Recover the amino acids of this structure.
């Protein structure tokens, strides 16, 4: 599923849920969503075994951090930044060291690309 479709569906879901919020509170709900997004951008993710990992994931979801807006660092994962042209070599080097290369969903990839 592409990012635009996800955003459209999520936007429709939030718009549908806002219909159930009394009008005088809609501003505060929108402010809460913005605050969650801003906090997720500023707060580094906790380690995977932390009691805060689930709360962090909920905060990023409420803050609409999905698709291209999704945080690159997640609880229990690291990111190795390399030039795009070196990406295949970096994946091979990591796999050759016996370290699984994870896909976007945090699952090991079947093969090195």
């Amino acid at each position: 599923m592409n990012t635009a479709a996800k955003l459209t569906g999520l936007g429709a879901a939030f718009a549908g849920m806002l219909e159930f919020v009394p009008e005088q509170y809609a501003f505060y709900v929108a402010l809460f969503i913005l605050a969650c997004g801003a906090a997720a951008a500023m707060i580094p993710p906790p380690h995977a075994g932390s009691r805060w990992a689930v709360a962090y994931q909920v905060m990023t979801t409420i803050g609409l951090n999905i698709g291209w807006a999704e945080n690159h660092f997640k609880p229990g994962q690291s990111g190795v930044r390399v030039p795009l042209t070196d990406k295949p070599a970096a994946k091979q080097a990591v796999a050759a060291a016996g370290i699984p290369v994870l896909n976007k969903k945090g699952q090991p990839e079947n093969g090195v690309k």
Observations:
- The first helix runs from residue 3 to 18.
- The chain has a mean pLDDT of 77.
